[in-house]
Amino acid sequence: MIKRILVLEKNHPFIIYKLKKEGFICDENYYDSTDKIDISVYDGVILRSRLKIDKKFIKKAKNLKFIARIGSGIENIDKDYASKKGITLISSPEGNKDAVAEHAIGMLLCIMNHIIPSHQQIKKGKWDRENNRGMEIMGKTIGIIGYGNTGKAFAKKLSGFDARILCYDILPKIGDTYAMQVDMNTIFKKSDVISLHVPYTKETKGMINYNFIKKFYKPFYLINTSRGGCVLTNHLVKALRNGKIYGACLDVLEYENFSFENIFHYHKLSKNFFDLIHSNKVVLTPHVAGWTQESKSKMDKKIVEKILLLNKLLIEKTIIQNPHAPDNYQNSYR
């Protein structure tokens, strides 16, 4: 069962309050590196993006039963080794799916209707209606790549726009009333807009490259609210220049690291990056698609729910293995 939990991220008082109320011991460490943390005494770890939980760190975790990441991705955790050690991985994609979906639609409306450049022009005294004539979502075909929590939320919120919505996923039979599941060739052939909702894995790293882009039958708009490393910046810039991509909505960039720090401190920023950020065909936001007041609360609640459920399952498993345990055993740590 779970007794003692280490919290590695600031600004999540609800999680600590609720877990302590349930009888767990919660320690906080917001500054030390993994080398300085004695993880051996803990049954669980809660973090967001401050640290990378690698094999070396997990090896020292003799009692660890779970690693919980506040958010949707778990790429800063060595999930294969954690699984090998029998450690449960917890995340909270249900908590920010609606925020990501709304943000993606907002960025798409901005890029298709020239909202940002026309706003900037007016502030400079320029009134240009014809060159800022927009396009409607209605009647377009939207291709969603990755149909999990955020992909489904995006499709649902798009349903009122009278667009045709297609989805592709490596899992079969997950299409629904909001999106028809198709193969990638259909996505290439039909899509006017592509929205990425995939985890960052070996398979998705650099998946949006020029060879991929060339397979589309017509130019399209690209939305990426998943992970920056899924899109190769130099290939995207090339496609924007030659018209293979009409415009790009990017909440994430290839240059981010696991902790999502200020990318302008990154010493390997290339010319392509600066071409991207100065392009009037691109809308950029600083990895905030899932970062709303509401999503923070929902993700915190979801993390607590999953930890409590895991603890319940562990207790039940222990009782089955030890049928002679006292009657109050189940509640001894609550």
What are its keywords?
alpha/beta, five-stranded parallel β-sheet, Rossmann fold, 334 residues, disordered C terminus, 11 helices, 2 domains
Query: Can you name the CATH architecture of the largest domain?
Result: 3-Layer(aba) Sandwich
Estimated radius of gyration: 23 Å
Mean pLDDT value = 92
- CATH top-level class of the largest domain: Alpha Beta
Structural class per helix/strand content? Answer: alpha/beta
Describe this structure in words.
The chain is of the alpha/beta class. It folds into 2 domains: 127 residues, 3-Layer(aba) Sandwich (Rossmann fold); 191 residues, Rossmann fold (3-Layer(aba) Sandwich). It has a 7-stranded parallel β-sheet, sandwiched between helices. A 5-stranded parallel β-sheet has the order 2-1-3-4-5. The C terminus is likely disordered.
